[in-house]
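TEACHING EXERCISE
Course module: macromolecular assemblies
Task: Read the component lines below, then compare them to the predicted structure of the full complex.
Student: A.B.
Group: 4
Components provided:
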Amino acid sequence: MVKKLGIVGFGAAAIGFLEGLIESKKIQDYEIFVFEKGKDHAHNTISGVRMDGKIFISRSMGGELDVPLDVQYRVVELYLTHSGYRPTRDRTDPIEYLKSFEKNGKKIEFGESFADEETYRKFYDNGFEPIKAYFFHLGTDVLRETNNNLFQRFSSFKNVHFLFDTTVEDVELGSKHRIITSKGEFEFDELVIAVGRSGHRLMDRLKAKYPQLVKENYYVDIGVRYELPNHVMEDLFDMYEVKVRYKTRTGYVCRLFCQNPAGKVTLEKYEDFTTVNGYSDTYHKTQNTNFAVLVTTRFTEPFKDPTGYGKNLAKLANILAGDKEKVILQTYGDFKEYRRTKRLGRVHPTLDENSFILGDANLVFPSKIRESLVDFIENLDRVIKGVAYFDNLLYAVEVKFYSNKFCNDVVEHLHVIGDCSGWTRSIQYATSMGYMRALKL
Ligand SMILES: Cc1cc2nc3c(=O)[nH]c(=O)nc-3n(C[C@H](O)[C@H](O)[C@H](O)COP(=O)(O)OP(=O)(O)OC[C@H]3O[C@@H](n4cnc5c(N)ncnc54)[C@H](O)[C@@H]3O)c2cc1C
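Instructor-supplied answer key:
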């Protein structure tokens, strides 16, 4: 008998899951329904599979999951192939094979962080922990094609049905798992929940109803999106992304990540607040590079709401900006000197001018976070001259929420995968988690 399988959310983890079902040939065993709140496959919530699309290979970032390198290679290949890139070498060396992908004579944008020993040492000697990884960048402009091709691939199976514009509001676990959606109720033999970070409402509901499924999380990363002219970072562009951690003088660890060379700053809109993020295109380059500078905060009992803490700081920035869809922009020099920014200098913001106000992010951050940010930037300037120029830009607030960790072995036939599971924080790890879970089905 054909079983019914429901997938909630159509992002990176769901893509990995569907691909895993196809490769294991188990896809034929199910009638599959995918529920996505976005109005179609191209308009789902903002995420790395719609914006930027930097897919890395690394075992030391992006999630707390053991993902074998073979699976990571497979994931990169999946996205490159569905973006119209084709290999120009054989598979003998997996990285050389993936690097060789081309489209219309243009090679895939690639970088390897800290391959150069001298650069590695320069960061290391200044107290930074350099993180090694390979990066493959698709770009926001190319991702439209990627999503379209992946959607065509999955929907070509007659037993796979997509229900867009359908928000899953609640889940009831039982001998059959039931979901309550904006368009009615459905029952499944197998249920996959893959709602990413934007599905936090549904995950909060699940956590409240089934606390036995969840391990508490006490972490949240809070900071800014930083923007400066390309030439400051140019010498490091062959890495694609500089990923480093640094223990600041407050004792808090601060990290630089999600770098977008020649990219743009963008808003990340949630239902009731707005934060910042960044991306870059393959074909439309800008004069500026942006990256996240985030402080990792870890709280202890009795505190139990790190998401609420991050959310409220983001809301505070929105309140000061006078609109729940606006953020604060300040020059680094003014931030450091506790002055509200009234005038910008040589760096022109890439974020649309209707999305920010010039303000003072010192009114948002608790002093320990603020001190950590300044200490990080000052020390980074010792390695990358120009990072601490007075007129570089910072946008507040950027937040990375760590979801509560879901235990996937407590309830039968339930699979919580991707960022909403608390085990992943990247396209690579979310897709891999979905893929590996499907192979185990
Ligand atoms: C602007 C931005 C840029 C990023 N860039 C990168 C990058 O370059 N590289 C990288 O590795 N990571 C990046 N990330 C992080 C990356 O997007 C995520 O780690 C990854 O997409 C997680 O995959 P997922 O499937 O768990 O969630 P998602 O890819 O977010 O997919 C979840 C899907 O579920 C849907 N959904 C949510 N709630 C419901 C509901 N209640 N009912 C129905 N559907 C629902 C959403 O619309 C969404 O389509 C970026 C994130 C953002 C926001």
